[in-house]
RNA sequence: GCGGGCGUGGCGGAAUGGUAGACGCAUGGGACUUAAACUCCCUGGGGCUGAAGCCCGUGCGGGUUCGAGUCCCGCCGCCCGCACCA
């Protein structure tokens, strides 16, 4: 019977279902919790999902075979803006859209044959999850982890709504195209900054995390040691006698040439009120929006306020105070001093406005004049660990490192009393207020007599009203006729419900904990959390390296503090793996010579500007590849091919997993997603690759059916099988699935070539089935059954390699002469080094190169290589 | 702009500082077939060469080392994140 994935995949999935194979149970076995980042229910699954969940499934099935009790759950990150956007654009309700998408995607996911415990499934928009999240919120509030303060948002004056950063394009609202305004609102914050130090220090303990992610988080938290000090003002309005400044380079104080304020600095605001010129500047600066990226990319501009401050080291020295668009109110004190000689941005700013550029230090040995000349055109920014010569120093040695100079400057300020050393963190508190409908309501009421009052726990959940519409601008919760009316839990009087909902990052910050007891009446159950936490292996995209993972680390600590998780779970993810994207070429129709939008490939910029052109993109299934290019099937028209990019609907370079599963089977999709590309790198989906995967799988099926006559042994094949056990096991342990695949190709090739038959051959096939099981579980069950395996493969233990079959008694050493490979020598594996050296020197090629001379050096790396230096 | 990462044949990629190109795809040749498809075997970085062999080759330019794809310095290109996308 030929390989028939459609039939056998269904059969085995039913068998696993019937046996309850993937139900996670607490028992005597050691536990293993593997989790892939749960999906947003956007509408359909895509290849990225297939890749992500296949990787997790390999780990889950492998650990299961290793004898672990495995928890491998699935859920839905279901709140968020796309549901509201859909409601606005197509009508309907966000709830219906979301649950409809979940149903579709669940149906698409199940045929992949993932070893998921579906009984634990939930969506973050479920009433139950909302209830438990609100309970957590109240506990956090009680524990002093939540507070309110003012913060700026992007306000769209036409749509009357707050915009997300991605909805602000060139300072304008994405729908209305109206210039955005920065508006201050009172919002809810989580005190993540309480944990700055701890979140930073604990990164050291996360041995199972990629170094790059730990580095990114460390930089994001951004601990810095600097000087906080005051400039006395000369002619400022009342109440602004001084300006607080924080700097990490106090050693450059003698090179200061200006002070710059954020447009949101209190002094800046006070000045703007009475000065049309400053007001206009600030208004312009605010149009950039609130995103740090936009601020940093914008041209650095400023305006002189006319105010002056005295230099702390010289009361006769006055510096101008500017308002500058690049100074952030959220970081430090909202005011900086500029030291143009040693900072690129300050340098640009000083040159633009003709401010002085005075070197504080120069290269070792430079004089003051030389150092000044050196920084006139370009700033001098050496590493802090480098020794430089201070030409305008005021503390410490003349020649010292930046680090030493900073310490000396702080010391100087503390002694003289004009400032103090301060450790600051870049990490800001986490603003969770969203002025939107489709999110978890913040369970708080505003009472006229009692103020802001948390909702009583017995009144939870506070659910969203269902009768809302999205046809008018603004937040539906704000304009709902009755939903806002509430009773104050404290005094029983009339109160107004909070209409802000929570950031969806809150939902995803504890779902991993909820999976341990998904139906409990409290956020977690102690026994289940104790047993299942932590997540042993977490898998997801690198794009979550900072925010999601940092918020989750904070949340776990907050849950420990409020008694919802054991102390041992404060770092919830023991190991993390970040996988790459699935990409595909892009097919686009365009006039010859015209550039392509948004690809960076514009060949002819002039044409791009003179003839704007909207390209039409085509799906991979709409095109046909011929020898001389790619053509549209329907019309025969030639199309352009743009190199691979992340699959996206707008570029139409998407391959629907549903089609692939229908035509090739789930195992082919899984196998291809694991082949070739290393998991952490992007993988390009190609039709040829998918076909190759399908061909290989049917070849394996044929190998299993071809039994051969008699019972012929083949020692070489058995050795190959045991080598495969060793190599595949190590590859899976090391998350190198592409290498595991390569080793299985080698084993299949060995089986093909072998003359083994009968039971000796079947024994090898059973090993192959077991090794392939985590990757292509359905085919592996077929092979297992054909090769006489007992019961379901999914219940079989992982094979063990026999060490005796892994060693060989001879070893071939390459011989290098002066670093170039010139030959090789085969010697017994246990030959003494001196004997190896003798043998090498006796080698014909070596003698030819040595030409009778003794070697200058002879390096023997045992078991690896020999290098003769002539 | 700032922070992080990546770059190896025609293509995806392999290589504890130790034989660069495992394994797969494409290509070319052959077998099977009336023919094709399927399948199987061989070939498979570039150059010189009949062959043995030699030279070049891991984005670019330097450096460390007996030995560098791997480590260090400086560039170029692409990707991810930048706090209200998820």
UniProtKB/TrEMBL annotation:
MF-aspect GO terms: aminoacyl-tRNA deacylase activity; ATP binding; leucine-tRNA ligase activity
InterPro entries documented for this protein: aa-tRNA-synth_I_CS (IPR001412), aa-tRNA-synth_Ia (IPR002300), Leu-tRNA-ligase (IPR002302), Leu_tRNA-synth_edit (IPR025709), M/V/L/I-tRNA-synth_anticd-bd (IPR013155), Methionyl/Leucyl_tRNA_Synth (IPR015413), Rossmann-like_a/b/a_fold (IPR014729), tRNAsynth_Ia_anticodon-bd (IPR009080)
Compartments where located: Cytoplasm
Placement of sequence motif 'HIGH' region: 39-49
Short sequence motif 'KMSKS' region: positions: 646-650
Ranges for domain Methionyl/Leucyl tRNA synthetase: 34-168
Protein biosynthesis is among the record's keywords: yes
Keyword Transcription regulation found: no
Sequence positions that bind ATP: 649
Main location: cytoplasm
Key words, A-Z: Aminoacyl-tRNA synthetase, ATP-binding, Cytoplasm, Ligase, Nucleotide-binding, Protein biosynthesis
One GO process term, biological-process aspect: leucyl-tRNA aminoacylation
Domain called Methionyl/Valyl/Leucyl/Isoleucyl-tRNA synthetase anticodon-binding: residue spans: 716-832
Domain Leucyl-tRNA synthetase editing: 219-367
EC numbers for this chain: 6.1.1.4
Limits of the Aminoacyl-tRNA synthetase class Ia domain: 427-584, 646-685
Record field: catalytic activity: tRNA(Leu) + L-leucine + ATP = L-leucyl-tRNA(Leu) + AMP + diphosphate
Annotated GO CC locations: cytosol
Family: Belongs to the class-I aminoacyl-tRNA synthetase family.
Protein name (record): Leucine--tRNA ligase
Species per Swiss-Prot/TrEMBL record: Paracoccus chinensis
Name of encoding gene: leuS
């Amino acid at each position: 019977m030929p390989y028939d994935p459609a039939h056998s995949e269904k059969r085995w999935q039913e068998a696993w279902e019937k046996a309850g194979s993937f139900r996670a149970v607490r028992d005597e076995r050691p536990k293993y919790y593997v989790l892939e980042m749960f999906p947003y229910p956007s509408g359909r699954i895509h290849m990225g999902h297939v890749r992500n969940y296949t990787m997790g499934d390999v780990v889950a099935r492998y650990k299961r075979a290793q004898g672990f009790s495995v928890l491998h759950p699935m859920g839905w990150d279901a709140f968020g803006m796309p549901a509201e956007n859909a409601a606005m654009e197509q009508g309907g309700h966000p709830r219906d859209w979301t649950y409809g998408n979940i149903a579709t995607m669940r149906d698409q996911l199940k045929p992949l044959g993932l070893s998921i415990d579906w009984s634990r499934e939930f969506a973050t928009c479920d009433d139950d999850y909302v209830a438990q999240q609100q309970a957590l919120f109240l506990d956090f509030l009680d524990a002093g982890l939540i507070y309110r303060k003012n913060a700026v948002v992007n306000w769209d004056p036409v749509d009357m709504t707050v915009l997300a950063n991605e909805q602000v394009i060139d300072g304008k609202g994405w729908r209305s195209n109206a210039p955005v305004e920065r508006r201050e609102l009172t919002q809810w914050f989580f005190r993540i900054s309480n944990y700055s130090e701890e979140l930073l220090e604990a990164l050291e303990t996360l041995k199972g995390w990629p170094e790059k992610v730990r580095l990114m988080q460390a930089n994001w938290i951004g601990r810095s040691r600097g000087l906080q000090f005051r400039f006395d003002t000369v002619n400022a309005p009342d109440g602004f006698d001084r300006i607080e400044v924080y700097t990490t380079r106090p050693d450059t104080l003698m090179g200061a040439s200006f002070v710059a304020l954020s447009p949101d600095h209190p002094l800046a605001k006070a000045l703007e009120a009475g000065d049309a010129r400053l007001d206009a500047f600030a208004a312009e600066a605010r149009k950039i929006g609130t995103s740090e990226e936009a601020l940093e990319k914008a041209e650095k501009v400023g305006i002189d306020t006319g105010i002056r401050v005295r230099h702390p080291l010289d009361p006769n020295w006055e510096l101008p105070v500017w308002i500058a668009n690049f100074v952030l109110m959220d970081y430090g004190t909202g005011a900086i001093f500029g030291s143009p000689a040693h900072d690129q941005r300050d340098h640009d700013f000083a040159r633009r406005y003709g401010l002085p550029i005075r070197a504080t230090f120069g290269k070792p040995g430079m004089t003051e004049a030389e150092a000044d000349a050196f920084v006139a055109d370009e700033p001098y920014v050496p590493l802090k660990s480098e020794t430089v010569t201070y030409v305008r120093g005021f503390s410490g040695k003349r020649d010292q490192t930046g680090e030493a100079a900073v310490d000396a400057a702080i010391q100087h300020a503390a002694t003289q009393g004009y400032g103090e050393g301060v450790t600051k963190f870049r990490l800001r508190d986490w603003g969770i207020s969203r002025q939107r409908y489709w999110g978890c309501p913040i369970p708080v009421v505003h009472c006229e007599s009692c103020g802001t009052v948390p909702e009583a726990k017995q009144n939870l959940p506070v659910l969203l009203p269902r009768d809302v519409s999205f046809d008018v601008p603004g937040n539906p919760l704000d304009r709902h006729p009755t939903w806002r009316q509430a009773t104050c839990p404290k005094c029983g009087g009339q109160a107004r419900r909070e209409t802000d909902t929570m950031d969806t990052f809150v939902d995803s910050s504890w779902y991993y904990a909820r999976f341990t007891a998904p139906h409990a009446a409290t956020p977690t159950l102690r026994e289940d959390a104790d047993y299942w936490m932590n997540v042993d292996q977490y898998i997801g995209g690198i794009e979550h390296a900072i925010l999601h993972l940092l918020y989750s680390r904070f949340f776990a600590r907050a849950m420990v503090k409020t008694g919802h998780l054991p102390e041992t779970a404060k770092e919830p993810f023991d190991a993390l793996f970040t996988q790459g994207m699935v990409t595909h070429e892009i097919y686009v129709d365009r006039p010859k010579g015209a550039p392509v939008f948004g690809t960076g490939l514009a060949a002819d910029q002039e044409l791009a500007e003179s003839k704007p052109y909207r390209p039409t993109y085509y799906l991979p299934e709409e095109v046909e590849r011929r020898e001389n290019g790619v053509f549209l099937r329907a019309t025969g028209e030639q199309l352009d091919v743009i190199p691979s990019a992340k699959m996206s609907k707008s570029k139409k370079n998407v391959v629907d997993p549903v089609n692939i599963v229908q035509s090739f089977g789930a195992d082919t999709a899984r196998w291809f997603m694991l082949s070739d590309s290393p998991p952490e790198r992007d993988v390009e989906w190609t039709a040829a690759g998918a076909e190759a995967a399908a061909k290989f799988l049917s070849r394996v099926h044929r190998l299993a059916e071809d039994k051969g006559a008699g019972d012929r042994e083949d020692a070489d094949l058995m050795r190959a099988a045991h080598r495969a056990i060793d190599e595949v096991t190590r590859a899976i342990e090391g998350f190198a699935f592409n290498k595991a695949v390569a080793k299985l190709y080698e084993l299949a090739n060995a089986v093909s070539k072998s003359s083994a038959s009968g039971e000796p051959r079947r024994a090898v096939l059973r090993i192959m089935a077991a090794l392939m099981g985590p990757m292509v579980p359905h085919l592996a069950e077929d092979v297992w059954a054909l090769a006489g395996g007992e019961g379901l493969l999914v219940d079989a233990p992982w094979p063990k390699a026999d060490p005796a079959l892994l060693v060989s008694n001879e070893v071939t050493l390459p011989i290098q002469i002066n670093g170039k490979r010139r030959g090789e020598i085969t010697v017994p594996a246990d030959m003494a080094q001196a004997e190896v050296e003798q043998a090498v020197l006796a080698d014909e090629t070596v003698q030819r190169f040595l030409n009778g001379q003794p070697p200058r050096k002879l390096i023997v790396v045992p078991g690896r290589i020999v290098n003769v230096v002539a």
